[in-house]
Amino acid sequence: MKKIQGVYKITANQKISGSYYHLKIAAPDIGRGVLPGQFVHVRVNDGLEPFFRRPFSVFRGGKSLEILYDVVGPATKQLAAKRPGETLDVIGPLGHAFTLPDKNIRVVVLIAGGVGIAPFLTLTDKIRLKKLDKILLYGGRTKANIVSLKAFRDNGCRIHVATDDGSAGVKGRVSGLFSKIPLDPSTTLIYACGPRPMLAAIQSFAAQHGMRGELSYEEVMACGLGACLGCAVQTRKGYKTVCHDGPVFPLEEVVF
Amino acid sequence: MDLSVSIAGIKFKNPVTVASGTFGHAEDFYDDKELRRLGALIPKTVTLFPRQGNPPPRIVETPAGMINAIGIENPGVDIFITDKLPLLKAIGIPVIVSVSGANYEEFRILVEKVNAAGVTAVELNLSCPNLGKHSLVAQDPAAVERVVRLAKKHSRIPVCAKLSPNVTDIAQIAAAAEQGGADALSLVNTFQAMVIDVEKRRSKLGNFTGGLSGPAIRPIAVFMVHQVYRRIKIPIIAMGGIMAPDDALQYIIAGATMAAVGTANFIDPGTPLAVLRGVEDYLKRHGMQRISELRGSLQS
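ok -> structure tokens follow
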């Protein structure tokens, strides 16, 4: 789909848990064209601080464009202060989407760390009606980092949660959950999104067990369009851009 | 209204272009008919051999700007000419190809290849190490003059020298380029800079240092264009933090023939066309018929 740039109205921007916010933008032309795993590039304000746009995975597409974000720095802090009725300049949909499971796949395992849950709701929306065993392994620092379980349950996911402090689910890392579930590599597909150490652990476990899949990667980004080559990531096929070649890459491709 | 400008006898329909390295691959964002309204395109610098670029992180955000250390990642001049150039030429506006050689011989071959490929002009990216007595060609007047003279000898198309601002006296370097026979100058390239992550006590860039661009450098770049314009006679393609029409107008009033939008392309890809519209409006507002009335019209 062609990339669209527009100025759109915010319809909702609410804190949902801890430092997590849920933003809805009335951008149907972008929202309707979004594929699972794609992102939008948002100009937080018209000024020079922050200077760059910020990329956000699309949490849900459709008539409304939804973003789940974690307030981690000055840009997301400014975003969190936006009220419904205010506008945002958005470019999207951008980037390479997740590959949907083919007919040999029986089990889909989604592995999310913290706000890394964001790209998976659109993905499960897309595969909701397929006869697949959908497993969501969801990790976070604490209970407040575990959100939107109902939406995933509604999409037919079996959910296993792990938190660093044990305040929700089991105490430990999400990569630990992954290694305990018996899976048949020939019929399983993995999708992972989260912090780099988590992705590295998933990549190494999947490689040992011959499992295939994809991961969604993050890097500081300027243009988001593949122009500046600033968001390069080292892959087994040389440097690639996260914005244009990614953010979704084959699980084995990124070099950690 | 006549917005057209000319460099070495070649006419460009208006003074607005895009700076090298800020536009490549974004072509698919635009409609060709929008792009066609620009005065020229300057794609990302190409080298003789493919370059994989610098290790990440390659960019860092700064107050009103950014530092980049991309490392001239590019597929090499041959692949550029066969795979990318036809698409750029098909847009239908002049293409000025930026090249960077690791030595004089590479510059010669690059200039010859680009000439054979049939483009409008060649821009020499002189911010590369190894040729001069100092760390960059662009910091050594003798090396600048020599590389420009060599390029001119092997080029039928106009040769533009892109200068680095990381010098004591940019007008002296500009004069050396003019002496070497340059048809035009591009100024300025980025300012050497770094940001330190205080927690890790490390540079925030994989390459340790990089080049600062964006509105943060604009007042310095405007002053440099002003200094150079007073010293030399050849046209200037100016760049440095152009985000809006007024920014481009400052450069033109300071003496620039063309103004290139660079870093702003990463923030708002609509900037070049917005700048063009704004320049046009300005001329109307001031009752000017030609852009040449504005060029170098700085009052003292």
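The two ends of chain A are 31 Å apart (CA to CA).
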